[in-house]
Predict the 3D structure of the following.
Amino acid sequence: MTTVLECQSIEKYYGSKSTVTKALDNISFSVDKGEFVGIMGASGSGKTTLLNCISTIDSVTAGRILVNGVDITQLKSSKLSEFRRNELGFIFQDFNLLDTLTGFENIALALTITKVPAMMINSQVQKVANQLQISDVLDKFPYQMSGGQKQRTAAARALITDPSLILADEPTGALDSKSARMLLESMEKMNAQNDATILMVTHDSFAASYCHRILFLRDGKIFNEVVRGDMSRKDFFERIIDVISFLGGSNSDVL
C-alpha cells in the first residue's frame, strides 16, 4: 500500500514564552492511498490546526509532514503554491466558489491553472459532473444553486485535477441533512471509483460514519482511533458514538 501522507511527531505552539499554547502535541499518523480518514475532537482539540498544517496554510513548530515522500515542512514559499496546486484538493465548509463564474467555469478553472489543454477540459468537467450528479447546474452561477449543489460543485473542483490528497474541512457544516447525505455519498463515490485519498475534519458523527477510520484528538494529541473494517456504516456510527460517550461529552461537545 502506498503512503500518501505521513505526519511525524508534529508539534505546534502559539503565543510567547510566558503564554505558550501547545495546539499539537507529538502527533504521528499516516494515510495510505485510497483511504477516507476522519478527524474529530472537541473545539480546541487541534483538529483544524492539524488540517491547516497539512494544507501548508500554517507551519509546524516541530516534526515533519511528508506527502508522497516529500517533506512539505521544508518547502520554500516559492514551491508551496505549486505543491498546493498539484498535490492538494480542497473542500471548504463555505464552498469557496467564485460568484462570477458558472459551475462549469468554477470546475474548469482548476484545470486551466494546471495548464490542461483547452480541448480536454470540457470532457473532463462533464465526466466529473456526471459522477457527482451536478450536470444540470453547470450553466448556473453559485447564487442559482442550492447549498448541496454548490458543495458538490466544490467537490468536483477538488477531484478533477486528480490530487494526491483531498482535504475536507467541515464539508457538511453548512448543509441540511438531505444535502449532507448527497455530498457524503458523492465523496464516498469519489473515494471508491477514483481511489481518491480524503482527509476530513468533521464535527458530525453521521458524516464521520462514511470514513474508513477516525482519529480522535484531545488536547492536541491523538486520544483514540476507530477503524471501520467490516462494520456496516450503522455499526460504525454507533461505535463512534460509544467513543464520544467514553470521552465524556455529547455530540455537540465532542464533535
About this structure: Strands lie at 3-14, 21-32, 36-41, 62-67, 70-71, 88-91, 165-169, 198-201, 213-218, 221-227.
